[in-house]
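Researcher: Re-running this chain for the archive, since the previous output was lost when a drive failed. Same request as before.
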Amino acid sequence: MWTPKTLWLAGALTAALALSTPAFAADEAVAVLKDPDGKEVGKVTLVAVPSGVLLAVDLTAVPPGDHGFHIHAVGKCEAPDFKSAGGHFNPEEDEHGLMNEAGPHAGDMPNIHVPETGKLRIEVLNQMVSLGGLLDEDGSAVVIHEGPDDYVSDPAGDAGPRIACGVIEAKAPPIAPAHLK
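Model: Regenerated structure tokens:
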């Protein structure tokens, strides 16, 4: 039975918990990669770490070979060319290329090499971005290009057409079990 004392204690406990719970800030996101036909070809899980963002790449059906691998500035992946994703993520307005003295773009990353199986699992650390920056108002996307990035040519490394794209979306925090609500 609820007494004034138990109601007061319940209210005080609720207030204390509410004030001590931090607001949700994304510390993990995911980009589901699709080809121009809309077929899922893999995913990239992005995790905020103290030194940037760790990208766990899990490809399942990408053409074999070397491919440019970038974060693009807009969270849109409209087929067939994925140009809706804009250029490389580049908030500092640097020049393109990991080997360019005036670069790189924050979204520039090393090429990936996909074996004959079309499957690849790797992790890439990008120290030039934050998850909060990637999840800004217009979002961002992970893009795989047809050919390798030459790490120098401006604006995009001469990597060719975009063959896969995935919008980076924050993963929601786990939902508490019903008995804890």
